Amino acid sequence: MQFGKAVGTACSSFIVTNIDDLFVLVTFFAEASISKNVTPVKITIGQYLGFTVIVAISMVGFGAALVLPSEPIGFLGLLPVLLGVWNMCDLVFKDGGEEEEGLQEEDGAAGGAKVASMKSILKVSLVVCANGADNVGTYIPLFSQAKGAEIAVYVVVYNILLGVWCLAAFLIMKQKHIFRMAQKYASVVIPFLYMGLGIFIIVKSSCYPWSIEHIDNSVSSHPGKIIMGVVTTIVLFACIGAMLWIKVRKAAAQSPSDVSIAGQEPEASGSSIAS
After folding, report:
1. Where are the transmembrane segments (predicted)?
2. What is the DSSP letter of 1?
3. pLDDT over 90 at 234, yes or no
4. Residues near 18 by Cβ (< 8 Å), separated by ≥ 6?
5. Concatenated DSSP letters of 14-70
6. SS3 content of the chain, % helix, strand, coil (to 5)
7. CB-count exposure of residue 151 (10 Å: 0-12, 13-18, 19+)
8. Fewer beta carbons under 10 A from the terminal one: N or C of the chain?
9. What mean pLDDT is reported for the chain?
10. N-to-C CA span, the chain
11. For the segment 76-129, what is each residue's pLDDT rounded down to a tens digit?
């Protein structure tokens, strides 16, 4: 095991999959400044609890690697690539995610002082788990490719960086201009980081050379490269097409409501003039 390389992989995979969690943490710390029930300590505990659940789920991938060959599991590296494409689609089709986050903040503040301590911790951990689909999709193939004590290094580094993340979120909340700048450019950078991480996992696992070799050994014409190229193209085009279809449907569903709201405004203004 190359310790330095393992630490570097752990750091890069954590940063890529938790940039969005940094903004969530900043929101919680902002709430802590006006609420007695949500405190920095409770936020940190909830963050660690939720992240522990994510890591535990990702360990399933490591268990599968003990039964299955590690090479084909590397195809799960396509998940971060598709996550990058999904995030890139978000740049083109705005789906109102910010409005949903705003509603979550209002729900958290509505409880006020009546919200119990355990409920505050549970709320943070549930948000972390709900926002952890990209983490699981990245950690499962990464853990499955781990050798020796690498997986232990990953988990230790993740937990250390999680504490750094909580501290950074608290400090960023105090410097709002830095937060605005990061929030502005992160949405553009994150898709490419996901794609790069997915490509890294695929290359590291040697899943394509392994599959091509097995196909060539089974068929005399050695069509391994052609088959893998065609299958990969079909899968990627099908997934990307489904993503675009979902985004277009969401955009079409939102546009009528916008039109109706816009259409009601002139009537309201007209009635006020008539009165």
Report:
1. 45-68, 151-173, 185-206, 226-246
2. -
3. yes
4. 135, 161, 162, 165
5. HHHHHHHHHHHHHHHHHHHTT-SSS-HHHHHHHHHHHHHHHHHHHHHHHHHHHHS-H
6. 90, 0, 10
7. buried
8. C
9. 77
10. 80
11. 778 878 888 888 887 777 654 444 444 444 454 444 444 557 888 888 888 888
Length of the chain equals 275
8-26 average pLDDT score: 85
Tokens in use for 160?
């250390």
User: Contact, 27 vs 38, CB < 8 A?
Assistant: no
Over range 181-195, report the average pLDDT: 74
Amino acid at 40: P
Query: Is residue 71 within 8 Å of residue 206, measured between CB atoms?
Result: yes
Greater confidence (23 vs 8) lies with: 8
- Cα separation, 265 vs 275, whole angstroms: 16
Which SS3 state, helix, strand or coil, does residue 234 take? helix
Q: What span, in angstroms and rounded, lies between the C-alpha atoms of 200 and 206? A: 10
- What 8-state DSSP symbol labels residue 4? H
Residues 120-170 have pLDDT tens digits of 888 888 888 877 777 887 888 888 777 778 888 999 999 999 999 999 888
The one-letter amino acid code at 115 reads V
d(CA 131, CA 97): 12
In eight-state DSSP terms, residue 12 is: H
Ordered by start, the domain boundaries in the chain are 3-205, 207-270
Q: What is the CA radius of gyration of the chain?
A: 23
Q: What is the pLDDT of residue 110?
A: 47
| Collapsed DSSP state (helix, strand, coil) of residue 163 | helix
Where b means 16+ CB within 10 Å and e means fewer, 70-99 reads bbebbbbbbbbbbbbbbbbbbeeeeeeeee
